[in-house]
Design brief:
The complex is a heterodimer of chains A (172) and B (633).
Chain A (H helix, E strand, L loop, with lengths): L5 H6 L49 E9 L26 H18 L10 H4 L18 H16 L11
Chain B lengths: L1 E5 L4 E6 L21 H5 L5 H10 L11 E12 L2 E4 L8 E2 L7 H6 L8 H14 L2 H10 L14 H10 L6 H8 L20 H21 L10 E2 L4 E8 L2 E8 L10 E4 L8 E9 L2 E2 L30 H13 L3 E9 L2 E12 L4 E2 L18 E2 L10 E4 L7 E14 L4 E10 L5 E3 H7 L17 E6 L6 E8 L11 E5 L2 E6 L11 H12 L4 E5 L4 E6 L21 E3 L8 E11 L5 E11 L10 E6 L5
Parallel strand pairs in B: 9-15
Antiparallel strand pairs in B: 1-2, 3-10, 3-13, 4-5, 4-7, 6-7, 7-8, 8-9, 11-12, 13-14, 13-16, 17-18, 17-27, 18-19, 18-21, 20-29, 21-22, 22-26, 23-25, 24-25, 27-28
Classes of the chains: A mainly alpha (172), B alpha+beta (633).
């Protein structure tokens, strides 16, 4: 019995309460036989079966709803899991500030993630992102030999394809 | 120089020298980042930072000074509806509503069923005969034979012919028997004696007493017989009107036509309370609210699938279509701020939320105010429209009517369409079905053919034969009854153009059979006139002499007449309000209805309904027409 009806039903003893929504349906066959002798026995019965006869018993209790407007916050949990690593190797324990910084950094990075190079003002978009690879012929600096890598790659492809194919630069 | 135009004086006034200014214009423009929106619409997933970035763009990390409602504590005060009043007249008496009383629908709609349905009377009598012993059976048939005469027009009333042949004098009239048993039944449901007409004695009398008491109780439960002059039925509007009362609140249902009572049928008004009301408090100490969901509700998050069946974004709204735009706006913007809490309440009460405390996840308690119109008007969409006299007593309130569910409807006993006919400047009441002698439906569209007689004169087409045929009146089917527009008498000068529709009769003229028109007298014509004379329950003959007969054809149904079993009296008038016959027309139906009330008892009654019609009718009714012989059909 729902909480709100307890006092009502207690004030009226004998009032049955049934939640019609929770009554399990039973198959019932009713035989209406006016004038049929009870001793008919094995004489056989002619029966009339009504396949479907929908009848509704209205529920004396109705589930009403109280709707209300409440300005609930629109904030939602983040859709990524942040795995925080200690900023110093062998750190004994996390400090609160470290943890907060990790979260702040993640959100700062998330905002940066939405920025495209061309959105950056002052020609910076032409320079960023700053993942530049140095390349010298003299090996004065640690460098990546792009032409050599390209040649090797082309060689591999030719071996693979069986004939020399013209490849556009940068598409390999 | 700045001048100002004054509307009332129609003059230009010098206001002062104009100040020099330069207006700068800034244009806000969107700068799409791609040539098409394909990439944006496909909403691809990417690295975790991208997911966070998208959430940030959709304000999902926005801190608000708000909390999520978690717990509710509320109280509902109920007042039981305790009285019923039929009709719309304020001085009509209130009838108390008992604990397991007649359902509202039955109480409002029920009308006499036994008197209009001879077959039902006969079959209820048959049930008594089945229960009776042979001696009692013979006595019953001798004392209360069912008189079911054959129909005057057996071709039209086939069911009437069948049932009159079967039942006439072979069974008993249940109502005649019940009327004599009623004074003999004591409080315990036993018979104190037998009617004088039943000549029975000894053992037969005792068995008859026991049997008739059982049968009488069965008959009483079988059908709910209403009052002949059902005060709920508003004849001039073809609608039901009634009122309910809960202590100091009156609920008026002025236009009830659809067979299902719900809260939106009612308007509430304050009345002086009488007696002690039945009140009850339904209290809930703690319950969780759930966010309101509805079909097509926009998903509030970006990576979420929506139900595609209802598409609010696809609603096309014109520039002036504010209502549609506000629905879309509500669904898209405020959809996530509504919450719902279920509460289980007894029906037949007016429930009012008297206390409502919302506690959010920070432990802050608040309440919610009732929805009121800012301009003070009373109409609301989702609650009973209250009158100003209630002074806010019905704010936060809901009326749960004790209505029936799933009413089964029998075959239509009577169907009448009301339709306008702009060409003839009339309205028509077209009877498609009425009850025949047995009470079973009779098809008036078929019957109308038997009620028409046209003489076809074969012209030889020679030079001397007439070229034009004059017609006094073009024929209209006999089941079409004109509704004539009438002015109010005395004329209402405040609204002199208002009209109402008065039911009339269709007058037709026929020459006597003895009068020679052209050609020989058709023997079928004599039979036809005799048929009209025999059906005096709806065809009234007017003697006008000069070898002419006039017949006035009236409707045959119970909705357009007070008593169609007898000839039409002069004082049986019916004036329908003009607005009740709109351009779309109206369909009126009378039928058996069967339902169970919440206590499990079954109810059978005859009720009426009014639904939309099928548009205008065209009778092509004209007077004084001359038609070319060639076009004559």
């Amino acid at each position: 019995v729902p909480e709100e009806l307890r006092a009502y039903l207690a004030a009226k003893p004998g009032t049955p309460y049934r939640d019609i929504n929770r009554v399990a349906p039973n198959t019932a066959i009713a035989l209406h036989a006016p004038g049929l002798e009870s001793s008919a026995g094995d004489a056989g019965i002619a029966a009339f079966v009504c396949d479907e006869w929908p009848e509704f018993i209205p529920d004396p209790f109705q589930t009403a709803g109280i709707g209300f407007h409440y300005d609930a916050p629109g904030a939602r949990p983040p859709q990524s899991i942040l795995l925080a690593l200690p900023p110093q190797l062998g750190q004994a324990a996390w400090s609160f500030d470290d943890a907060v910084d990790v979260i702040h950094e993640a959100f700062d990075l998330a905002k940066l993630r939405g920025v495209r190079p061309r959105d950056l003002a002052g020609g910076l978009g032409a320079i960023l992102p700053g993942n530049y690879l140095p390349h010298t012929y003299t090996d004065d600096l640690p460098s990546v030999r792009m032409l050599e890598l390209e040649r090797e790659a082309q060689q591999r492809l030719v071996t693979f394809a069986g004939s020399a194919v013209t490849f556009t630069l940068g598409k390999i | 120089v700045r001048t100002e135009f004054k509307k009332d004086a129609a003059t230009l006034t010098f206001v002062g020298p104009k100040k020099p200014s330069i207006t700068g214009i800034t244009r806000l423009e969107t700068q799409p980042t791609a040539i098409n929106i394909q990439a944006g619409l496909s909403a691809p997933l990417a690295d975790p930072l991208w997911l966070l970035s998208r959430q940030w763009q959709f304000n999902e990390f926005q801190g608000e000074d708000a909390g999520t409602p978690l717990r509710l504590k509320f109280e509902v005060q109920g007042v039981k509806v305790d009285a019923f009043r039929a009709g719309s007249k304020l001085e009509a008496p209130w009838q108390p509503i008992a604990e397991h009383d007649v359902p509202i629908e039955t109480r409002v709609e029920a009308e006499p069923a036994w008197t209009t349905h001879a077959r039902l009377r006969g079959e209820a009598g048959q049930h008594a005969l089945r229960m009776a012993t042979p001696a009692v059976r013979a006595a019953l048939v001798a004392a209360y034979p069912l008189a079911l005469a054959a129909p005057t027009d057996p071709d039209a009333d086939r069911a009437g012919l069948l049932w009159s042949t079967l039942l006439n004098a072979r069974t008993i009239d249940a109502i005649a028997l019940a009327a004599e048993l009623r004074p003999l039944v004591d409080n315990a449901g036993k018979l104190t004696g037998l009617p004088a007409r039943l000549a029975l004695g000894g053992v037969d009398a005792d068995s008859a007493k026991a049997m008739l008491a059982t049968w009488f109780a069965w008959l009483d439960d079988l059908l709910y017989e209403g009052d002949a002059a059902n005060p709920s039925w508003q004849r001039n509007r073809m609608e039901y009107a009634f009122a309910l009362k809960a202590n100091d609140t009156r609920l008026d249902a002025a236009e009830y036509t659809d067979g299902h009572v719900d809260w939106d049928d009612f308007r509430a008004t304050a009345v002086a309370p009488v007696g002690d009301p039945v009140r009850q408090t339904f209290a809930v100490a703690s319950r969780h609210p759930t966010p309101v969901r509805y079909p097509g509700m926009p998903a509030e998050r970006y990576w979420e699938f929506e139900d595609g069946n209802v598409n609010f974004a696809g609603a096309e709204a014109g520039v002036t279509d504010l209502l549609r735009m506000s629905v879309t706006e509500f669904a898209l913007t405020f959809g996530n701020d509504w919450f719902l809490v279920p509460v289980r309440l007894p029906v037949g009460w007016i429930h009012r939320v008297s206390d409502f405390v919302i506690t959010d996840n920070f432990g802050i308690a608040s309440s919610a105010n009732p929805i009121v119109n800012p301009d003070g008007s009373q109409w609301t969409m989702y609650s009973v429209t209250p009158d100003v006299t209630l002074q806010g007593r019905l704010d936060h309130a809901l009326f749960l009517p004790d209505s029936l569910d799933g009413v089964l409807e029998g075959a239509v006993l009577e169907e009448t369409m009301l339709a306008r006919d702009e060409m003839a400047n009339l309205a028509w009441a077209i009877e498609h079905t009425v009850q025949g002698v047995s009470g079973e439906p009779l098809d008036r569209d078929l019957e109308a053919k038997a009620l028409a007689f046209q003489q076809r004169i074969a012209f030889d087409g020679g030079v001397d034969s007439p070229q034009l045929v004059y017609r006094l009146q073009t024929p209209v089917p006999a089941n079409w009854t004109p509704l004539l527009p009438v002015r109010d008498t005395p004329i209402n000068f405040s609204d002199p153009l208002s009209i109402r529709l008065a039911r009339a009769g269709m007058k037709r003229f026929y020459p006597e059979a003895s009068v020679e028109v052209i050609g020989a007298v058709d023997p079928a014509y004599v039979d036809f006139l005799a048929l009209l004379d025999a059906q005096d329950d709806f065809v009234t003959r007017i003697a006008i002499g000069d070898g002419l007969r006039a017949y006035v054809f009236y409707p045959r149904g119970w909705m357009l007449r007070r008593d169609p079993l007898h000839p039409m009296p002069e004082d049986d008038t019916l004036v329908i309000e003009e607005e009740e016959v709109p351009r779309i027309g109206a369909t009126l139906r009378r039928k058996f209805q069967y339902a169970r009330s919440s206590d499990g008892r079954s109810w059978l009654w005859i009720g009426r309904s009014k639904t939309a019609g099928r548009g205008e009718a065209q009778s092509a009714l004209r007077w004084d027409v001359a038609v070319k012989r060639e076009t004559l059909r």
